[in-house]
Amino acid sequence: MPGRSARLVAAALVLAVLGCAPQHPGGPGAAGEPAAPTASAAPPAATAAPGSGAARLDTAPVEVPDDVLAGVVSVQTRRGAHRGSAFRIGLEGVVVTAVGVVAGIEPGRGVRLVRADGEPVAAELLGRAGGAGIAVLRVEPGSGLPPLVAGTAFTRARAGDPVVAVGAPAVLAAPAAPVVLRDKRRPVALGAAGAATALAAEGPAAPGAAGGPLLSAEGQVLGVITARTPPARGGVVAIPVHRARQAAFEIVRAL
């Protein structure tokens, strides 16, 4: 998607389902169920309705810069069906996604990624960190995937902050969605791996965003989107970026 930024107009916190199903029939569910992040992003400001005490989203358009979108890829089946999203983290050649996005793929096997500009990228599944709800892939140098920046976004984030859930721009017409951070430490079940605490954000999010980044208003990574919240709430759950990065480092170090 060279030369342009993803744009969408957000309605005021409509409680919508994330809808992480594959973009083509036959692919696995891309909700990324755990059992189964110096670019600038500018989400609309969260404001409180008079007397409600609850934050809502303004309806201003949102743009995510191309240099942020360039680091987010589509994870696809051999037939080109979108399984979910992934992004380059701050380790050389390392890409992370939700563990459910690569369900059924054995470590050491090849994985097809597609960049924002539509170019394919060869990757290898290095392993899974079930306790963190993420999977780790490796791409070769020269892949053209810039790392997304985390900085101190997680430390500074507070409930009620406007944030952005981002999916793969290669296949999603509206890859970025403004949501509101509701909780930084929400308990989530990880199946046999136990449980963890995660970020929870509320609001409509891009279909197929599982495995993509949850970004702060400054475009820094807060976490890795791993699941959708129940339909009655509408939103995403994301593993904190520092935990995902540590899990990725441990997998790479063990090779």
TrEMBL record:
Entry-linked PROSITE patterns: PROKAR_LIPOPROTEIN
InterPro entries in the record: Peptidase_S1_PA, Peptidase_S1_PA_chymotrypsin, Peptidase_S1C
Skewed-composition ranges (Low complexity): 31-55
UniProt-listed GO biological process terms: proteolysis
Region (Disordered): 25-57
A GO term for molecular function: serine-type endopeptidase activity
Signal peptide: 1-26
Keyword terms, alphabetized: Signal
SUPFAM superfamilies: Trypsin-like serine proteases (SSF50494)
Pfam family, one: Trypsin_2
Record PANTHER family: SERINE PROTEASE FAMILY S1C HTRA-RELATED, SERINE PROTEASE HTRA2, MITOCHONDRIAL
Protein name from the UniProt record: Trypsin-like peptidase domain-containing protein
